[in-house]
Amino acid sequence: KMLSTTVTGYYGDLISTKNNGSAMKIYDEDGEDVPAGTKAWMNKTFDFNSCQTIKKGMMLAHEMRDAFGNTNSCDCEDCRAESTSMVNQYKVENVWGCGKTTCSDEDYYGRRHLKKTYRSNFLLAYDTSSKFELKSLGGVEAIEYAVQKISSKQDYDLLERLLMSIESKSSTLPRSSCLKLLQMTIGKGSAELKVPDDVRISFARAIITNLSPEDEPDSDLYKAILGAVATIGWVDIGSAVNQTLRNYRKKRHITLPTFLDRVSFILKLDPFCSPRQKLVLLGGCCSDLSTALSSHAHVLRMNTDLPNTTSIVLAIESMVKENGWVTMEMVVKAASDALRRIHSTTHDAKSTDGLWKRAEMLSKFFSIHHSESTRPLLGDCVKDMIAKLERPDRVHSYHGDEISVLKRCPVSIKPLGLLFDYGAPEYFDRFGKWASTEESRMATLVDLFKGMSKDGSDPIVFVRDVLNKCLVQHSIGEKWAGNPLYASSLHVRLLLKEYPAVAYEKDDNGRLPIHHAVLCSSPRLDNVTDIFNANPKGASVADPVTRLYPFMLAASKDSVAVAFKLLLANPSLVDTRFDDEGSSRKRKRSLSIND
User: Fold this and answer.
1) Residue 389's CB: how many other CB atoms inside 10 A?
2) 66-123: pLDDT as tens digits
3) Which of 142, 254, 298, 407 is deepest in the core (most CB within 10 A)?
4) β-pairing verdict for 100-106 and 576-578
């Protein structure tokens, strides 16, 4: 009996087909039921699909006619159309007939699921001396049984028969069977039995190549493959190793821990293959990881078992230390991209911690190796940090408050430092908008700076950068206390109240906060006023970059009110006027604020 399932699209296009065959009754040549044990392995071994799909299978039917000259096929149009095909010079008949429709359903998307049941009789013949090969085709358990028999007897003749059988049926070896056979091939037993080198090479190639695509090598199998490379040589089995690692089905299911295991294995090939070959293998692994993550993003979203970021970061750092940055640069980039994709699928404390660990690792590599390739990766960390802050409902921190993700960051790389070291103006603006939206956020941010002071760290640089780059271009949001008397610059005022000296703090370019306040795209009078009140003399200090005074910078932004207010602070800054004839002359110097 065979159950055939066909799925067609809305327009009748074929989407997929699947055939499941099983033997209902098996009789021997005398017409007696075969023993239960024989029926069991026969039912697993015999493949009837080729009679229906004309594909590679066990059964090939010649044209069979009864006493009246009729074939076993029906006379319907479908059977006549598919009645005869040529496979390996055999004439193949559709001996299954039309079959009986057991189910025909249409799903929500208009796809039709058609199920048919077929029944037919076959005359089967096999060579009893080939029973070993036939039994080994009965699935994983059958192969493992055959491998156990081969390894216990050290029987290389049976090994050859098993490998030929597996290759002829496009079957595969389970991981445990592959390990046993490989150890047998390169072990002392093969030398004692004086197995020729070319035979050992052939066996090793076949064993490694036929590893099941569903089974990723574990540490024991990788060790055995390294032993084979050391014994036989990379030249002879390198192609088989590469083929196994880059199997198309393995590519689809590669994970980050699997990727790092492969990288570790490739790095250990250093004594046996050239540096160029090693880099090619590493590049292939990185490409496979990227493809797998891009193609199966939905799998990541459903996967709640996130990898241990700490162990992954430690493994990467150890590899970089042992093998050098040049070799590991592409691996670090691929692993960082993978971690970013994985951590972006969930928004709990575990993914937030993973973000900080990733940023800390990349920052360390950037400071040690000065590689510009890590700067975009650090920029991605900043982008992810801002995204998590903007979606506080998706960050479940231990303390319950949104800014707590900043507090829980490792001391060696604070998120604010990450923001100002590797961020872009876009992210400064987004952080400032987030912080100034609610009063509690600004208060918590001030508390964060106070905590740094208690720990013995001077937060003035962080305060200066937050003020200059993030706050001066924003007003407070609608979620503040709601008092209409509150000035729109209250967030700036809170910072200046706790750290008044920040108004005098110059940045790396020598600019004061007053310069940043008037240089934003739309200078805000309230913000400028509060900064001016904290440091009135700043209005008389020319910007060291443009050589313009703050009132001139405000005027260049068409902010008349801000420019006028700053000019009133020291009118003597305008020390030249023009008469009606166009000639200039000095006017009497007004009293400046310095006086």
Assistant:
1) 19
2) 444 454 445 555 544 444 444 444 455 555 666 777 777 777 777 888 888 877 777 7
3) 254
4) unpaired
